[in-house]
Amino acid sequence: MNAVQAARPDAIVHFAANALVGESMTNPGKYFHNNVANGLKLLQAAVTVGVKKFVFSSTCATYGPPDRVPMTEDLPQRPINPYGESKLMFERMLRWYHELHGLEFVAFRYFNAAGASGRFGEHHRIETHLIPNVLKVPLGQAPHCEIYGTDYPTPDGTCIRDYIHIVDLAQAHILALAPGKQGFYNLGNGDGYSVREVIRMCEKVAGKKIPALERARRPGDPPKLVASAEKAMRELGWKPKYPTLEDIVSTAWAWHKEHPLGYPD
Questions:
Q1: What is the pLDDT of residues 63-101, one digit of tens each?
Q2: Which end of the chain is more exposed for a tag (fewer CB within 10 A), N or C?
Q3: Which of these, 78, 79, 5, lies nearest to 45 by C-alpha position?
Q4: First-last CA distance in the chain
Q5: Residue 263 included in any domain
Q6: Which runs of consecutive H residues, i.e. helices, occur in 123-244?
Q7: Is 265 exposed, middle or buried (0-12, 13-18, 19+ CB in 10 A)?
Q8: Total number of domains in the chain
């Protein structure tokens, strides 16, 4: 509350969360406490101080296994892990704060954020994202990558995901800050790629063979998640600048080669 009162912002863009699906399956309390209870404190502070606009980073994990793909915003939301459930709970709070307090909000349901800009790339304390983990192999930082689950009901047995470039994500958030923009939006490219396809693209971009070890499925992983972002394009005027997997992997590879150890401590 004190930080929000001191800043008195016109808008809040809320990115913060615990976001590891696997961890949420073993430590759900951490996810409900931080993503829901702490998020509620920020939401309440926003209303108390008179913030007019709230932009929230949600997730496609709120849907769970979808009834159809590409996924549109009107699909039922049936999350299968506490991470997705915690984000859905915050979405529901936003609905009520809009209805009862007049808080204008945009909630973006991200599909897999990836890629890099010239200055910024992926370097997490615990790296669970597929592309940076695969690229550790051609960087000489790992002997192989890992595939979690090869028996999914997909053409090659591995999970299929939609990938969206971080620059395109950033642009969507800027557009969402415009007055009058309100509601829930998917952010993805509308194209699904399997884990094996991503590995092959990383091999192509890096110019090196990338061995992969097959592991058991991780709990809480749906087989296929692919976005329809037509609503964001239509209502926000959003258009991805990096729509292909090759675009995304190429920018990631360029950044990791330039920053092989990530960001300085």
A1: 999 999 999 999 999 999 999 999 999 999 999 999 999
A2: C
A3: 5
A4: 29
A5: no
A6: 130-135, 166-176, 195-206, 230-236
A7: exposed
A8: 1
What are the residues facing 227 on neighbouring strands?
71
Q: What is the pLDDT of residues 105-128, one digit of tens each?
A: 999 999 999 999 989 999 998 899
Location of structure tokens 């307090």: 101
In 3D space, the residue among 38, 42, 31 whose CA is nearest the CA of residue 1 turns out to be: 42
The structure tokens listed for 168 are 């395109």
Long-range CB contacts (within 8 A, 24+) of 30-35: 31/82, 31/83, 31/85, 31/86, 32/82, 32/85, 32/86, 32/89, 35/83, 35/86, 35/87, 35/89, 35/90
Residue 72 has a pLDDT of 98
Active site residues: 83
Domain extent for 40: 2-258
Q: Report, as an integer, the average pLDDT of 129-140.
A: 97
* 265 part of a folded domain: no
Segment 46-69 shows an average pLDDT of: 96
Q: Is residue 125 part of a domain?
A: yes
State the sign of the Cα–Cα–Cα–Cα dihedral 15, 192, 202, 240. negative
Alpha-carbon dihedral of residues 88, 86, 4, 16, nearest 10 degrees? -110
Task: Estimate to the nearest angstrom the gap between the alpha carbon of 221 and the chain centroid.
Answer: 14
Give 107's DSSP letter. E
Query: What's the pLDDT band for 232 if we cut at 50, 70, 90?
Result: very high
H/E segment holding residue 249: helix 245-258
CATH number at residue 21: 3.40.50.720
> What's the predicted TM-score (pTM) here?
0.93
User: How many residues are listed for the chain in this entry?
Assistant: 265
